[in-house]
Amino acid sequence: MEWNTDNADVADHHRSKINEEMNIRFYISLIVLLGISGIATATPSDTLVVKVMGTHDDARFEPAIIQVQPGNVVRFEVVEGLHTVTAYHPDNRRPLRIPNTASSFDSGMLNAGDSWSLLIEEEGVIDYFCLPHEKLGHAGRIISGTEYIIPNYEDDLLPEAVLETLNKAQKHFLNQKQTES
User: Would you tell me how many other CB atoms lie within 10 Å of the CB of residue 171?
Assistant: First the structure.
């Protein structure tokens, strides 16, 4: 067998492929090793789901109140209808009903089958609503942390149906917490 430049090119190509496979195996092993040893600092947060239901009078968040810890993610999954997940915040032309240091949020319009996620970074009570159905009481609450005490939020500018929804859900939530104790 004669050795020529074509054979050398083939040999170089094979060596290159072998080196590439070894590099891939090395990096995969390194990632697995870091994950097992706990050296990797990123850990996945818990994701809790709130269903967005209804199309008119029956529009609602299920559950209406959810308790999370800072670092958790709340994923809103739209089951039916057209909805938003919007913070009670002056940026959204509503009274402030989230922690002072928290950022305002608005999912924009979501259709059935869509989902939208919110990373909870602050402790406190976060009230939110659905823009198309707010007057019908389509609102919810996130309690971040271990405190169940609701801040003295301004109620004057909220639709009566929202206050009814939040108060009813809060009573149910507190009753559940008492039976768990």
Answer: 11
C-alpha 22 chain-centroid distance: 38
Cα 133 from Cα 58, distance rounded (Å): 9
Its pTM stands at 0.75
Tokens found for residue 173 = 């939530």
CA angle 49, 53, 54 (to 5 degrees): 175
In the 8-state DSSP scheme, what is residue 106?
B
Question: Is residue 126 within 8 Å of residue 112, measured between CB atoms?
Answer: no
Query: Distance (Å, rounded) from C-alpha 64 to C-alpha 50?
Result: 8
Please write the tens of the pLDDT for every residue from 9-46.
Answer: 545 554 555 555 544 454 444 333 334 333 322 334 68
Task: Give start and end residues of each alpha helix (H) in the chain.
Answer: 5-37, 160-180
